[in-house]
Amino acid sequence: AQKVTQAQTEISVVEKEDVTLDCVYETRDTTYYLFWYKQPPSGELVFLIRRNSFDEQNEISGRYSWNFQKSTSSFNFTITASQVVDSAVYFCALNDYKLSFGAGTTVTVRA
Amino acid sequence: GAVVSQHPSWVICKSGTSVKIECRSLDFQATTMFWYRQFPKQSLMLMATSNEGSKATYEQGVEKDKFLINHASLTLSTLTVTSAHPEDSSFYICSASKRSPSNEQYFGPGTRLTVT
């Protein structure tokens, strides 16, 4: 069975603080893909990153970075120097034979 | 590339009527399309998966007679909510995937349905 757990339901920070969103997944498959999506108030899902199970390299894209640790089945996401525009719901998702989403973490960045 | 559109973006209908939502892949041929439902402050839940020319595969607990899915071409899938009730009010999101190892899904902007 698939399962994606996002431990934090809500996170509130002041602008310029760093934010780390945790994601732990569970799968029996050896080949799978992990994703992070952002959902702003408009509702449209914004793709942030895809990572396959064989690529454990961490990635940085601007203020965003991701830490994939297969040994602990975690795929955490950090926003550095957060901005008000980062306020959104962030979903971690796992795809082996089906795409399953975590419950989401609501991030609020206050000016 | 990989743009998916949905129409309408929002709809209000009366209880008992049917509503059709369209999902189109604009610049690619989608081998598979998916329909998700998202209630307020909740995650996306997969409703059904459809392949062009085949019957849709519904997730457990989703009534196939209520949520009719038609995938007539490689660029168009429709979801019809039949005899809608207020509890069907939700945000409906479609996605489409090309044939690729990652089966990455490209999401539409969503349709907000309100049944009064």
Q: What do these coordinates show?
A:
The complex is a heterodimer of chains A (111) and B (116). Chain A has 111 residues and is mainly β. Chain A has strands spanning 3-5, 10-14, 19-21, 24-26, 33-39, 46-52, 59-61, 64-69, 74-79, 88-95, 99-101, 105-110. The model of chain A has no long low-confidence stretch (mean pLDDT 94). Chain B is an all-beta fold. In chain B, 0% of the residues lie in helices and 53% in strands. In chain B, the strands form two sheets. In chain B, strands 2, 4, 5, 6, 9, 10 and 11 form a seven-stranded mixed sheet that branches. A four-stranded antiparallel sheet of chain B has the order 1-3-8-7, with no helix packed on it. The N and C termini of chain B lie far apart (37 Å). At the A-B interface, strand 5, strand 6 and strand 11 of A face strand 5, strand 9 and strand 10 of B.
Keywords:
heterodimer, A: 111 residues, mainly beta, six-stranded mixed sheet, four-stranded antiparallel sheet, 0% helix, B: 116 residues, seven-stranded mixed sheet
Describe this structure in a few short sentences.
The complex is a heterodimer of chains A (111) and B (116). By secondary structure, chain A is mainly β. Chain A is built from no helices and twelve strands.
Q: Helical element count of chain B?
A: 0
Number of strands of chain A: 12
β-strand number of chain B: 11
Termini separation of chain A: 41 Å
Question: Spans of chain B with pLDDT under 50 lasting ≥5 residues?
Answer: none
Helix-strand blueprint:
The complex is a heterodimer of chains A (111) and B (116).
Chain A: E1 3-5, E2 10-14, E3 19-21, E4 24-26, E5 33-39, E6 46-52, E7 59-61, E8 64-69, E9 74-79, E10 88-95, E11 99-101, E12 105-110
Parallel strand pairs in A: 2-12
Antiparallel strand pairs in A: 1-4, 3-9, 5-6, 5-10, 7-8, 8-9, 10-11, 10-12
Chain B: E1 4-7, E2 10-13, E3 19-25, E4 32-38, E5 44-51, E6 57-58, E7 67-73, E8 76-81, E9 90-97, E10 105-107, E11 111-115
Parallel strand pairs in B: 2-11
Antiparallel strand pairs in B: 1-3, 3-8, 4-5, 4-9, 5-6, 7-8, 9-10, 9-11
